[in-house]
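Worked example 3. Consider a protein that binds arginine.
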Amino acid sequence: MASIKKQLTQYFCQALVDAFGVNFVEIDPLVSLASNPKFGDYQSNIALVLAKKLGKNPRDIAKKIIENLALEELGDPPTIAGPGFINIRLKITYLESQLKASRSNPNLDIGKTDYSQKIIVDFSSPNIAKEMHVGHLRSTIIGDCIARILEFRGHQVLRLNHVGDWGTQFGMLIAYLGEVYPDALTTADALDIEDLVTFYKQAKHRFDKDEDFKQNARNKVVKLQAGDEKTCRAWQLLCDQSRREFQSIYDRLDIRLTERGESFYNPFLEDIVKELDRKELLKEDAGAQCVFLDGFINKMGDPFPLIVQKSDGGYNYATSDLAALKYRIEEDQAERIIYVTDTGQANHFAQVFQVARKADIVPEQSEVIHVPFGLVKGEDGKKLKTRSGTTIKLRDLLDKAVGYARQDLSERLEKEQRKESREFIDNVSKVVGISAVKYADLSQNRISDYIFSYKKMLSLQGNTAPYMLYAYARIQSISREGKVDLQKLGEDTKIILKEDTEIDLGKYLLQVNDVIEEVERTLLPNRLCDYLYELSKKFNRFYENCPILKSEELLRTSRLLLCDLTARTLKLGLSLLGISVLERM
Ligand code: ARG
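Given these inputs, the predicted complex is written out as structure tokens:
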């Protein structure tokens, strides 16, 4: 729906120029939703901001602005409140026409960006031969949502999976498997992921206490890096094994990703270090090549460097991220790069970004952003674990969510004495279970830690996926009950906003554009969840207060149109969260 805020902003900009001259053309009039609906729908505090600049009383400024503010069909004459707030109340006729117009557009007339960019979203990024954990799950869900929103707004998005598939740990693993289970290094499918993780732990154990083994592991790394055929094939097999496991999770979550792991940048690591050297950024510290940075000190107050080459000559996580940055800027021509990882990596990215800026690997006009998120905790407030104290496997976690959803559904069916087919039950449990996990994650402010609770996320009450899915399904049931095809409702019928709850719903529907733009800007998906939740609540109030199918004609169709708009807004919003709707549940 055409953004009302944007239209109002245009009117205000014109008014500022008319009132104070062309110098005011660039000024943002700060139009926002009214903080108190008593005074109107939108407000602008620009008069208070300009008071200083112009050296005048803000109320007088506000007066001059509104004298020039010709809102025409859009709103009632603006009013001034308090020290100089300008309040706008939208005209009902205007709301009605906007709602009607948005209905005829398949994407609800939600705007595209005026500045389409090439954007990379680096997310999920689990590590080979290790379990994909809940942190990766969060990255996957949040990263996918951000990518969906940017794509929807018209950006060109490259979704990259920066898997940890390179490093000394592979030498260790290959050396160990060579001793205890050589088949794994030559035969596909000889291992499943659990065995691999177990072997990994055992290998690490050996590595830490056995010098000969350590040397053997190092030799394997050298062989791997030199491209030795047998070693490379073994490594490839290990990667394939993990990859299959990751893919099964992505399939269940409906996630698309392009894998480009750390190993991809291996050929560029040496050059990156040379480049830093050429640009005189390197300093040797205890045998390691380092870049010292502004604003980073250790506990003792000494400068704290970023190591880009270890004393044994090897490269590390930071080196590959620098090489990746260079590649993404030069080859992918990314204008904006977004990294979705837990807050624990904030320092890593701040350091890498700073080095990349200093070395001019990332030019000024390109944006690099770390999008951090908090920890996933169990209901006891501690790290999420199974009852026996081991880490939770994602596959089990998803199975459990779907299992509980199935249990809830059977109880409900029994209570309502409904009989449904097996397919129906399977599908509803799957959609509800997976959506619940995604929504629980996205509806939190991502920066805070979040408590993982099946019970809460699957509840039909509150800000949850089932609540939202239910609101959608309820609207579909209205159309079934009245035997109306919502999509085919007359193009020429008017939308009439009469009762308070229906005006309220209509106004709120028209805010979806601004919300999506806000998420595009802030990269905070919870804002979209809040909006959809509020929309469902407003719909329910409307539904309780305004008869729909039993209304007289004109009003009946109008109300059905509002139902349809609500359903479509919910469906679209949920799809941007990576959640599909159910027609019945
Ligand atoms: N593999 C890393 C981890 O598991 C995440 C990688 C994030 N992306 C990046 N370009 N560093 O923590």
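Take a moment to read the result before moving on. The first strand starts at residue 31 and ends at 33. The chain has a mean pLDDT of 93.
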